[in-house]
Design a protein that fits this description.
This protein has 188 residues and is α+β, with helices and mostly antiparallel strands. The chain has 2 domains: 81 residues; 100 residues, 2-Layer Sandwich (Alpha-Beta Plaits). Helices cover 57% and strands 24% of the residues. Strands 1-2-4-3 form a 4-stranded antiparallel beta sheet, with helices on one face. Helix 2 crosses helix 3. It is rod-shaped, with a radius of gyration of 40 Å. InterPro entries: Transl_elong_EF1B/ribsomal_bS6. This is Type 4a pilus biogenesis protein PilO. Keywords: Coiled coil. It comes from Candidatus Liptonbacteria bacterium RIFOXYC1_FULL_36_8.
């Protein structure tokens, strides 16, 4: 065989080997690389999800620890806003003190006890026990600005009290008469 034919044959064999290697690469190696890339993306997604769940779990554990640490102060705050027992004199005293501090005169006061269907039944099961209310009818007299100050003081008062209705009428001497229906709440 001639030298030139041997060279051509070796070049042809090299070219065929090159084509076979391209076929093997495209058929077997490239899909494996693509599968590895997809698996790495899936692994990254799952790691991110796991980290997010760990962070959420840590946040919940922290919240639960803070809640347990502060449960006594929360209970104390709730007992201040919703005191235990009726204590009608205290409710009357608070309204009287707020009206006096606002510059209003207390003309009349009546009290009625009522039930409110909410809250827990068991003493130790919840921070808030069964909630009851004291309905108060109050008549005050004075200037409108003093009445606004009274309402602001009532709103920011520690004990939970809400205004059910307000009636305003005129009185002699330029003063106004304010009729209020108030609800003060307590825990039984």
């Amino acid at each position: 065989m001639k030298e030139s034919n041997k060279r051509m044959l070796s070049l042809l064999a090299a070219f065929v080997l090159f084509l076979v290697s391209l076929f093997i690469f495209s058929s077997f190696v490239k899909p494996a690389f693509l599968e590895v890339r997809d698996l790495r993306e899936q692994l990254k997604t799952e790691r991110d999800r796991l980290n997010a769940q760990k962070n959420a779990s840590t946040a919940m554990d922290s919240f639960y620890a803070d809640y347990n640490k502060n449960a006594a102060s929360i209970k104390s705050l709730l007992e201040t806003a919703l005191p235990g027992g009726k204590d009608v004199p205290q409710s009357v005293f608070q309204v009287q003190s707020l009206s006096y501090a606002s510059g209003l005169k207390l003309r009349s006061f009546s009290v009625e006890l009522a039930n409110v269907a909410s809250g827990g039944e068991k003493a130790g099961a919840s921070l808030i026990k069964k909630v009851e209310k004291i309905e108060m009818d109050v008549k005050l007299s004075g200037k409108y600005e003093s009445f606004k100050n009274f309402l602001k003081a009532l709103e920011t008062n520690v004990k939970l009290t809400d205004v059910k209705s307000i009636d305003i009428s005129t009185a002699t001497g330029g003063d106004l008469v304010f009729g209020l229906k108030l609800n003060a709440y307590y825990q039984e």
